[in-house]
Automatic annotation (TrEMBL):
InterPro entries: CheY-like_superfamily, PAS, PAS-like_dom_sf, PAS_fold, Sig_transdc_resp-reg_receiver, WalR-like. It comes from Limnoglobus roseus. Residues 132-202 form the PAS domain. Keywords: DNA-binding, Phosphoprotein. Residues 5-120 form the Response regulatory domain. PANTHER family: REGULATOR OF RPOS (PTHR48111), RESPONSE REGULATOR RECEIVER (PTHR48111:SF69). This is Response regulator receiver domain. GO terms for biological process: regulation of DNA-templated transcription. Transmembrane segments: none annotated. One of its GO terms (molecular function) is transcription cis-regulatory region binding. The lineage of its organism: Bacteria, Pseudomonadati, Planctomycetota, Planctomycetia, Gemmatales. The modification 4-aspartylphosphate is found at residue 55.
Length: 297
């Protein structure tokens, strides 16, 4: 069972003492007992507890929901609400702060154990996810590969620095384009097919095509397109591309074909088009200065 340092926020002294005994018998450390919202905020800052048991009804003008709201502005400490009032309005107001748990007084040992363990496990999982996202953002920002996020209809959402540098667009300029505008040469048949396939299949869709930079340069690339699902629908696609370094540059001059999933389709010229707010991509990439893989060279 996970152990924690716990701050008790309870304005009834007998209940607070019972909670202290319960928690200590369960192996937790109680770092303080306070009975107002202001004291709860101050004690959380000073003592940095690993979890807060917060009574909703407190003495003074502010209550436990007010205290939790203030604490959540600068701390991610898990907060479990306690109250003798389990009416719908009280629960609805308390849930606006997205607490880690909710127990009704008098608090039974079994309920307390369940609530605390659930809160600690969720908090640890969220911390790992944040660490992963931070590392993923670092990798995306520093890779030499081009990382793009687009809507299923092709509208651009974002690019990492390598993509913006290679293509010659600022973030605001890029977000006004459609992916098909970034693909070189004559026709656009390949992109709708590519995006449709990527949105429908599990796993990655491979592609090889030539990008058109803003200054007219042609950039042969090879990579993958994958989907992200949210709420049962595909809300965006990510594209990771590695420039193909050819020992004979003349061999890539004038190329006007794009290979999508092994099939060859025409590529196309850029034109003017629309929209999309920037977001951040996360995927497995090679560090700056290294290749996509041996086949991409």
């Amino acid at each position: 069972m996970l152990k924690a340092t716990i701050l008790i926020v309870e304005d009834e002294a007998l209940i607070a003492e019972d909670l202290r005994e319960q928690l200590e018998q369960l192996g937790h450390t109680v770092v303080g007992v306070v009975d107002t919202a202001d004291e709860a905020i101050a004690a959380t800052r000073q003592k940095s507890p690993g979890l807060v048991l917060m009574d909703i009804r407190l003495r003074g003008g502010a209550d436990g929901v007010d205290a939790a709201t203030m604490i959540s502005e600068w701390s991610d400490v898990p907060i479990i609400y306690m109250t003798a009032h389990s009416d719908a309005d009280t629960v609805a107001r308390a849930m606006l702060v997205q607490p880690y748990g909710y127990v009704v007084k008098p608090v039974r040992d079994s309920d307390l154990v369940t609530a605390i363990q659930t809160a600690l496990l969720r908090h640890a999982a969220e911390a790992r996810l944040r660490a992963f996202e931070t590392e993923a953002r670092r990798i995306v920002e520093n890779t030499a590969d081009l990382v793009l996020q687009i809507l299923p209809d092709g509208r651009m959402m974002s690019s990492n620095p390598a993509g913006r540098t290679a293509l010659g667009y600022s973030p605001s300029q890029l977000c006004r384009l459609n992916f098909r505008q970034l693909v070189a040469d004559s026709h656009g048949e390949a992109v709708p097919q590519l995006l449709s396939r990527a949105a429908e299949v599990d796993g990655d869709t491979q592609l090889q095509l030539t990008l058109a930079a803003r200054d007219g340069r042609r950039i042969p690339v090879k990579g993958v397109v994958g989907r992200r699902q949210l709420g049962g629908r595909v809300d965006r696609l990510w594209v990771v591309l590695h420039p193909i370094i050819d020992a004979n540059p003349a061999s890539t001059q004038g190329s006007n074909q794009a290979s999508v999933g092994g099939e060859v389709q025409p590529a196309f010229l850029p034109t003017e088009d629309a929209i999309g707010p920037p977001v951040t991509a996360a995927c497995c990439l090679q560090p700056a200065g290294r290749g996509w893989n041996s086949a991409a060279r």
